[in-house]
Each structure stands twice: as structure tokens, then as C-alpha cells.
Design brief:
With 529 residues, the chain is an alpha/beta fold. Helices cover 38% and strands 17% of the residues. Helix 2 (63-79) crosses helix 6 and helix 3 (81-92) packs antiparallel against helix 6 (188-205). The longest helix has 20 residues, at 274-293. Residues 426-466 and 483-529 have low confidence and may be disordered.
Length: 529
Amino acid sequence: MSDAYTPHGGQSNTGAWVSRGATFASEPAQGPAFDYSVGRFVQVEAACEAAEDAFWSYGHSSRERRAAFHEAIAEEIEDRGRRITWIGTAETGLPAARLERDRTTAQLRLFAAHIRAGDYLDRRQDPAMPDRAPMPRPEMRMVQRPIGPVAVFAASNFPLAFSTAGGDTAAALAAGGAVVVKGHCAHPGAGEVVAETIHAAIARTGMSPGVFSLIQGGTRDLGAALVQLPLIKAVGFTGSLGRGRALFDLCVQCPEPIAFFGELGAVNPMFLLPGAAESRGEEIGRGWAASLTMGAGQFCTNPGIAVVGKDAAGDAFVSAAAEALMEVFPQVMLSERIAEAYRKGKRRFEGRGGATPVLRGESAGRRVGPALYQTDAATCLQHPVTGEEVLGPFGLVVRVGNIDDILSLAKRVRRSAHRDLAYGRRGCGPGASPAADPRTESGPSAGQRRSDRRRGLRFDGARWPISGHDQLRRHLRRYPLDPPLPSPRLLAEPAGCPAACGSPLSRRSLTASPRYHTACMISFERSNA
């Protein structure tokens, strides 16, 4: 198989590639550019209708069939590995290893193993209590069922692991939900070739073609339309805080509010306490600079803020970090748009009198150099802009005079994927141990580094790292088993509703208004038992 790949340039819907209307050109870091069709609302609507139609069979499929489907996708990705690497590295400028193709296939296989085990279903059974006072309780059973079609927004900084067949897509498919992916303009070719692998896996395993669709290009209005269609029941998003907030607002404003699962931008502060600063401040400064520039600073865990003291040890940290950053050559950003956003982010800090540039860095086109700025706690607390993420190799050092300044900053900074605490035996004050001040964390040994990685999900920050188990279960909903769940045979069209509402009972009406027709479904089940 040739390494080179020539894209179809269209929209993927039920296994077919449709190219109509306006086009946009890719902006690769190297190699040829290709034209891609701009997605239209009618294509989004068709993809969602196909996903809803496929859901009624795919959502009732066996765990073994879905596991085999995930494994087939992984195998198809490996079969097209050279093509994926060729176009992925050309579009993003990332090295082949950073594309994380192996991580993507590993995720798919892990979900396959997980759903085979069946532990995620969380079946529950409470026995009957006929003698309970003041009234008896019947036996109750609960089971997890998929919530329905899911919209997934591909990430710019992870063209494979968090995009077309990434974690959000794999989790939704594992749960039994159909998926509509909104591709990212930074890597449309990589998105397309991975979509081909999913279509090939659909054909191999006999799944309904509508279980997966890819929509490319278009304005933000296209993504908004995808979220607001009533057939979509959840949204997975990886990207900026501003864009995530906009999508979240749309989700909660839907006539039937839907779930939003977002991994959003964050500044990930590092707090350097006096003991650590004195004993190894220069070492930490160099390590912080390396983390700051890893992957051109385009990781969601990029430690954008360092909080250090206004003393000689703090000066040594800043000097060591600046020297290390000077040795880093300009790096290629994922797209022209991201590079321009980085430059705009730097200008926001330059417009604030309290932020002093230590290192400005060179920037031209998609290549940007690292930048380092410095301010004090009072200025940082006064100007909210200092707490906003700048995606790229950008660092801000906040100088503090005492532990109260550190606590004030810790309370004000937004929730992040990481909060690092570096300390030594001095801890919080002259001659103090790490446990001397109850207002701070402490640890058993000097030089320990803690990371505030918590389980769970919050909107106002980044999505904290969660297990595949939890990632899958968020696409499920608990249902009672008494009366029994409606079976697929309920859904033959056309069918009249036997209940009092008099509405036609169909897949479309059930999806558009599930609560309204629950009684109808149960009655229909009993009448056809």
C-alpha cells in the first residue's frame, strides 16, 4: 500500500462520500494541499437521521458484536497506518510518534475488552419487601441503556486519539450509541482516512452504515446546528474554553437539554514553595521550561503559570527557565489559525502594564518561539486575562511575597487538568516543615511533586482524567426493567399508538419526544406480547 493518500474531499454519510457546493483548502505544514467540501446543514441533518435510524438496531446489538466492531476499526487503522501517518504529519507538522496511532488502536481494544466483561452495565436488583411498613415494596430492577446518537467534535491537538476514532467516539460506540463526528479543519485528511477505516469495519461486521458519519468544514454555525438537532442526545468536545462554553450553552438551551462532556483549555498552575525553590529552584525552572515547550505547548496539561517567591531563589528559577527557553527553536503549530491565536494571546499580556516580558520569542507564520512573562500576585488577581490559557509555548511567572499570596492565587485560578505543588523540607516558611502550616498540602519527603488529578467531570475547566469505565458510562442511562424495556419489534413503521394520545408511533416520534411516548411504548409492548 502506498504511503501517499489522496482524499475524497467530501462528507461521509452512511458509507458514501458526498462532494457538493463550496470547498475549502487544507493548510498543511508540508506537502500538497487538498480541497474539501464544506459541510451543509442538509448533510448534518441527514447524518443525524441516519444515526438515529441505526441506533435502534445498533443500540440493541450484543456486547460481543460491538467489541468485534471496535477491534475491526483498530485493525483497519493499522492496515492504513502508513497513509494515516503520511497525511497526518503533513497536515499538522507533528512527528509520527506524536500522532499516537498506537494509542488510538489501544483505546479501541480496551473498550472492546471492557464491554465484553459487562461490568459497566451496573445492573441493580432490590428484592421485594412484602412486609415493609407502611406499605410493601415490589422487586425493583435497573439496567444501563445507551442514551442515543452522540455528536463528537474532533480536537486540533490530537488528530487521532481525540478525534475521528478517538476516545469520545470509541466510548459512545461501545455504549451502543451512533456517532456523528464534526471534523477539525487542522487535519481534514487524517479525519477522512480514519473515517474510511470505520466504514470498512462497518462493512466487515455487518453494522448499519448510519452508525458513523463525518462532517467536514463549514462555519461554527454548522457545529451549533449539529448540537441543536433533537436527534442528538450528548456532545463530546475537546478544545478551547470559549468554544466549549458556547457549545455547553447550546446543550442546556435545547428543548430537551442534553449532556455536554468537554475537555477544555486550562492554565495548570505550578506552585513552587520556598523549600523547593532554595534547594532545587534552577532544576525545576529547566524542567518547567521543557514541559512548557513540549509539543509546542499544545497539550491541555501545559503548565502555563508558575507561582514563585520574590526572592533570590525565585530569581534563580526565572533565570534558569529563561535560559532553557532560549535554547528552544521556533516550533510548528498545528494550524495557521492556532499560530495566530498564540500571537494574539501574547499581545493580551503586552497590553497589561503589570506583565513584564522576560523573553518574547520569534514568531512567523506557523512557526512560533517560546515566550516568558512575569508579573506579581496583585496584578494577576486584578486582571482576569492573566488566568486565561494561551495555547502554545507561553509561560507566565507570578511572583509572590508570602503564603497568603499563594493561597489567594490558588483560590482564584480556574480548575485545571493539573495543579502541581513543589516543596522541600522548609515548606511554607523559614525553618518550617511542609506540615508546619495547616493551610498547605504536605508530604513525606523533600522534593515530592504532587498533581491535583481528580476523578470526575467539571465544565468550568478541563475534563479531569477519567477511566474508560466512566467514559463509557456517561453515554448510558438507567432504565427500570418493570415494566420491561420496549424491544426493537415495537419500532416497525408505520404503527398506530394504542394509548390515549392518538399519535403515530414511530422511531422518529419516539426520538423526538421520548418522555411523551413512554406510556405508548409500554402499552404497545403489552398489546403485542
